[in-house]
């Protein structure tokens, strides 16, 4: 039976292994050891973990700034794809954001990632014409 819970320190190794599998080309700042500590300082209840018999099989990380919600990532172990794990994580994150008063959720995906775009499209997300810009701070 799959449970969705808020991240705890005991999940670190499982999350790290999952992210290395699902996001093998992510930059260093997205690696577990760099991304998790700051997330735990801000809305740690929006960092969700899907557990199957004590094994981490999925994660969702979201945030809310009082104006917009953001879904930063959903990761599901490839051995558990197409079993509803990602959909459950998404629904759980959306419910948590709604409880906080969030009325709109934004997300970004990498261009060309059609499978992920289809997943979100299936759940009611649509492409909004925007230009995404970013800047790394502090180095």
Question: What layout of secondary structure does this protein have?
Answer:
Layout: E1 2-6, H1 12-22, H2 32-41, E2 47-52, E3 55-64, E4 69-76, H3 85-99, E5 105-107, H4 114-122
Short précis:
Residues 2-139 form the N-acetyltransferase domain. The protein has 139 residues and is of the alpha+beta class. It has helices spanning 12-22, 32-41, 85-99, 114-122; strands at 2-6, 47-52, 55-64, 69-76, 105-107.
The biggest sheet, with number of strands, parallel, antiparallel or mixed sense and barrel status, is: 5 strands, mixed
Distance from first to last alpha carbon = 43 Å
Hey, roughly how much beta strand do the residues contain? 15-25%
Q: Kindly state the mean pLDDT as a whole number?
A: 94
Task: State the secondary-structure class.
Answer: alpha+beta
Quaternary structure state of the chains depicted? single chain
**Count of individual beta strands:** 5
Total domain units: 1
Level of helix content? 25-40%
* Rg (CA only): 15 Å
Unreliable residue stretches: none
Number of helices: 4
> What is the global morphology?
globular
The CATH architecture term is: 3-Layer(aba) Sandwich
């Amino acid at each position: 039976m799959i449970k969705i819970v808020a991240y705890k320190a005991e999940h670190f190794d499982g999350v790290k292994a999952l992210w290395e599998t699902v996001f093998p080309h992510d930059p260093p700042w997205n690696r577990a050891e760099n991304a998790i500590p700051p997330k735990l300082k801000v809305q740690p209840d929006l960092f969700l973990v899907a557990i199957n018999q004590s094994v981490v099989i999925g994660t969702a990380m979201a945030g809310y700034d009082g104006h917009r919600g953001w879904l930063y990532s959903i990761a599901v172990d490839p051995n558990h794809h197409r079993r509803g794990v990602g959909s459950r994580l998404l629904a759980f994150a959306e419910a948590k954001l709604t409880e906080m008063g969030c009325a709109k959720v934004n997300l970004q995906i990498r261009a060309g990632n059609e499978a992920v775009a289809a997943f979100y499209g299936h759940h009611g997300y649509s492409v909004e014409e925007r230009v995404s810009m970013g800047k790394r701070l502090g180095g």
